[in-house]
Amino acid sequence: MTKQVQQLDRVIIRFAGDSGDGMQLTGDRFTQETAAFGNDLSTLPNFPAEIRAPAGTLPGVSSFQLHFADHDILTPGDAPNVLVAMNPAALKANLGDLPRGADLIVNTDEFTKRNLAKVGYATNPVEDDSLAEYRVHALQLTSMTVTALADFDITKKDAERAKNMFALGLLSWLYHRPTEGTIAFLERKFAKKPEIMKANIAAFQAGWSYGETTEAFSTQYEIKPAEHEPGLYRNITGNIALAYGLVAAGVQSGLPIFLGSYPITPASDILHEISKHKKFGVRTFQAEDEIAAVGAALGASFGGSLGVTTTSGPGVALKSETIGLGVATELPLLVIDVQRAGPSTGLPTKTEQADLLQAMYGRNGEAPVPVIAPQSPSDCFDAALEAARIAVKYRTPVILLSDGYLANGSEPWRLPDVAALPKIEPDFAAPSQEDFQPFARDPETLARPWAIPGTAGLEHRIGGLEKADGSGNISYDPANHDKMTRLRQAKVDGIANDIEPLAVDDPSGNARVLVLGWGGTFGAISAAVRLVRKEGRSVAQAHLRHLNPFPANLPEVLRSYDKVIVPEINLGQLGLLLRGRYLVDVIGYNQVRGLPFKAEELQGVIQDVIESE
Fold first, then answer.
1. Cβ neighbours of residue 245 under 8 Å, at least 6 residues apart?
2. How do the residues of the chain divide into helix, strand and coil, expressed in percent and rounded to 5?
3. Residue 1's pLDDT is what?
């Protein structure tokens, strides 16, 4: 049968099913093949916090959305063009996001009376015309998979589990994805279970063959590779990029990296990844709790390593006393906070930007620390290097604010020229004829010396009690405490002279409205700004990487525009800081749904503000 091939410039696919259906694996494999093909892409994994939520229920739905195109894209897409629903719960949980006319692939084998009742369907939506506004492809995915694997020596349950591979094969055929990488992956994954390996490969190939031969799909779709800057690329998530950035920081500084961590969603993958790279002088320590993890990391910094601790918001709260100790002892320490939604346990697998004020002020006393935030999954690499540079040069803890969307999302990453990466100079103190002054300061950076314990002539005392300026002796003198407090603040404030000015994207030069963001909102804001400009309107955009201190030119930028919109996935934390510090009445746009912004949503906000001018 000859199939029609239709060219598309982009498509958004969402795989959705029960948390045991392998949707994250399916989405990841489709993503890897798409990256290998050369498309630009962005992903949004979305899964329950429970290890195994009740099967067939709405809380147990897991999904993976992939946006890929033949041109540069910035977000995982607002709404899917294709939804693959493996059961009624997946359909009900995701149908509201599906636009009219979109393709809906449904696994009808799972649409039993019991499964329908679990999610409140009185009748089968596949049969009652309630899906008439979509292009429905009702397929018996489970049954076809079991039939395809009838000759394999595996249980029926194992055969049914391979239905995600059947679906992956079908979608790979439908969108002209390569297959070699997935087959090689299955060979590696199930190398110790050869019959399961062969069955999964057979299911994948059966899905491909079904697409090739069935009359249910008369058209294939082709999305040509995107034009990228020449270089070697790989697909990367934010957590993996961050891990690589930490390894690179160790190499560029010549310092051993010590990672003290306690597993916590969504930061655990950094520990998992960095532990694989011990050949670069990395040491990892999985501690019994968050406090022990950061204490070990700070101890490592005292000993001459670059101490790092990774966590999420709840862990930062527990680490706050030790971060304050790092401020008092003036030692380099990297605190990686992969933000998640909500207070307490909240929504562990969902994203949010609500730890900014905690990073700024969540310690007792005047305890200033630099705060930086990456803007995309691949930018986590550069942000980690920058955090290490500041921590080492200025002898201070640094908090890096990633988030769940960046951590788990992925995009193509152009491998950097290693020779061009910035050098980080530890400049350890060296013995001299003079008495060692552990709190004497570099006149340019105000950083104190970093002395390796046990070095003759550099013996000194550190700890949480206030130190006398210069000598480092314990001091309760009021004037000395005031001076040391102001010196620590001035040291952090001075970093503003060592970072790039805030860059503003204002092509026309006559925009009166500025959209200012930080962290993982970059993609959605940039996509929204593009949409507004396509309609002939002028709008400027800027994005903050350094949140403490702010770039030196930020006040000038803010006062150059009549109105400043600040979209945040919190209730207005950056907006509060900007109003308080610069007396600029910024316009906050705030949502806390555990999801990234949609571009069209922000487009409407920007247009409303422009029209109110």
1. 380, 381, 382, 383, 384, 385, 388
2. 40, 20, 40
3. 58
Q: pLDDT class for 54, splitting at 50, 70, 90?
A: confident
pLDDT of 613 higher than 80: no
**Residue 344: φ, ψ to 5°:** 55, -135
The C-alpha atoms of residue 187 and residue 98 are separated, in whole angstroms, by 35
Give the Cα separation of 49 and 346 in Å (integer): 10
Which letter, b or e, does each residue of 512-544 get, where b requires 16 or more Cβ atoms within 10 Å of its Cβ? ebbbbbbbbbbbbbbbbbebbbeeebebbbbbb
Beta carbons of 270 and 336 less than 8 angstroms apart: yes
Confidence of residue 49 (pLDDT cuts 50, 70, 90): confident
In angstroms, how far is CA 100 from the centroid of its own chain?
30
Q: For residues 573 and 590, what is the distance between their CA atoms, to the nearest angstrom?
A: 10
The answer to whether the CB of 71 falls within 8 A of the CB of 226 is yes
Q: Is the peptide bond before 549 cis (omega within 30 degrees of 0)?
A: yes
Helices (H), 395-514: 404-408, 478-493
Confidence of residue 501 (pLDDT cuts 50, 70, 90): very high
pLDDT of residue 228: 87
Residue 3 is predicted with a pLDDT of: 76
Cα separation, 300 vs 304, whole angstroms: 6
In Å, what is the CA distance from 358 to each residue of 92, 323, 371, 401, 467? 37, 12, 11, 11, 26
Instruction: Kindly state the DSSP code that residue 467 receives in the 8-state scheme.
Output: B
Cα 280 to the chain's mean position, in Å?
24
> CA nearest 1: which of 220, 216, 214?
214
For 266, 327, 432, 440, the CA distances from 436, given in Å and listed in that order, are 43, 21, 8, 9
Return all residues near 333 (Cβ < 8 A) that are at least 6 apart.
294, 297, 298, 301, 307, 308, 309, 323, 326, 391, 396, 397, 398
CA distances from 59 to 17, 44, 50, 92, 116 (A): 11, 18, 9, 11, 15
pLDDT digits (tens, 9 = 90+) for 445-460: 999 999 999 999 999 9
Rounded Cα–Cα distance for residues 133 and 142 (Å)? 25
Question: Which CA distances in Å does 591 have to 14, 77, 312, 566, 605?
Answer: 23, 17, 20, 12, 12
Start-to-end CA distance of the chain, whole Å, equals 59
Comparing C-alpha atoms, which of 30, 67, 60, 33 is closest to residue 46?
A: 60
Residue ranges in 68-112 assigned as alpha helix (H): 88-94
pLDDT tens digits along 392-435: 999 999 999 999 999 999 999 999 999 999 999 999 999 987 89
Helices then strands, each counted (H, E), the chain: 20, 22
Which residue, chain included where needed, has tokens 């099967």?
A: 55
Q: Could you report the per-residue pLDDT of 78-89, keeping only the tens digit for each?
A: 999 999 999 999
